[in-house]
């Protein structure tokens, strides 16, 4: 902020306290970024959000910012001057290529930078900037439809902080495929487009999956538009603190699973699981880590165990990060197998001249060798949750539901089936899992299937926001009566200051000086 702008801030009338003045200088703006795989119906969700924000919350909503529109207007910068019509068979493929080329030339967050440009322009047009560049509070919202690269969302978060809210939209693969075909995409191209959108190897390519798991809210868009709109409305009411909202059973169960994951010291990924009875009662939780003698897993407390013989505390923690080389043993053995194969190929004498060992290793990238998981020392989260029930003699898990932050591997999947668990709810997909491929007689990803164990994605408030949103500390009653919050005047629970820390310090110090110099009454 300029010195002139700072002076404008300091000259604001202070009828109450300096704290109230600073509170009034918090932004009410909201940046809603949507992310979802191609064919999931992100644009439908975006339109519902726009409508609810305008009609219910009385926000001035910027025309929906579509990176696809930015790609169309900027594609000439990478030599692509003739893009196909939206209903053309190759439209999605060409647009993905154009987006990748723009990221490659101008940086991975180029499309986000262009979106920021549009946001700033809209704010100025709506009177959100006073003379001297001072930002003015206002009910303005910006919807981004949609984000495809992690660097794009990173830029939004660095610029707008907690004003950014991510909605992750998904739909079953079969439905997404049907939508693409109905939109004119040839059947042979559907699979390639979906795989490319999920995550490309190139650093400037599509990375939808990596952003999706960062979502603040997860939305299932599987044809039921009324339900989709209702869920969006609920999420926005929660975000603005309108009414009294408590977690659904699914939200509580996924929070338990996500919290359990924090216990894991696994160097590959932290996974948590919870098992919940049909009535919603929590039966057990588990996380992935190394098993120890006597049952259970090693934990932080094992680093300081009293040894009566030695008369001192000793470290009995044998988790991978501090045991035998401090390495991931699955990765070490997997790379060892790759070296064995490379040695065999080299020794066979079948290599053409000029092909190196490194070239051979490169050939095996993306093959099943990369997906080996059986050499890990850790018990997986789902297995530990099931074993906890057996170890502690708890109630039956027959017909229970297992929640996990990551899709179960094929090893855990077969035990889930054998245990009599009826459904699995997960957040993050896991490409290495062969659960359905190996057990399609017992496992299904069709939410309507009643003859097999159903694996489906989680729909609800992200567990990372569970405490922040459901335990915000906002007052619920006044004079013994529930407080009725009007959406039209409510503000987001999370906001950013419109000014710098130095400006607020100056305001506090100036106010303090005025009070100290005032004559005694």
UniProtKB/TrEMBL annotation:
Molecular function GO labels: dCMP deaminase activity; zinc ion binding
Keyword Flavoprotein: no
InterPro entries xref list: APOBEC/CMP_deaminase_Zn-bd, CMP_dCMP_dom, Cytidine_deaminase-like, dCMP_deaminase-rel, P-loop_NTPase
Domain of life where this protein originates: Bacteria
Keywords associated with the record: Hydrolase, Metal-binding, Zinc
CMP/dCMP-type deaminase domain segment(s): 248-437
One cellular component term from this protein's GO annotations in UniProt: cytoplasm
Alphabetical list of Pfam families matching this protein: dCMP_cyt_deam_1
The family this protein is said to belong to: Belongs to the cytidine and deoxycytidylate deaminase family.
PANTHER family registered for this protein in UniProt: DEOXYCYTIDYLATE DEAMINASE, DEOXYCYTIDYLATE DEAMINASE-RELATED
Official protein name in the record: CMP/dCMP-type deaminase domain-containing protein
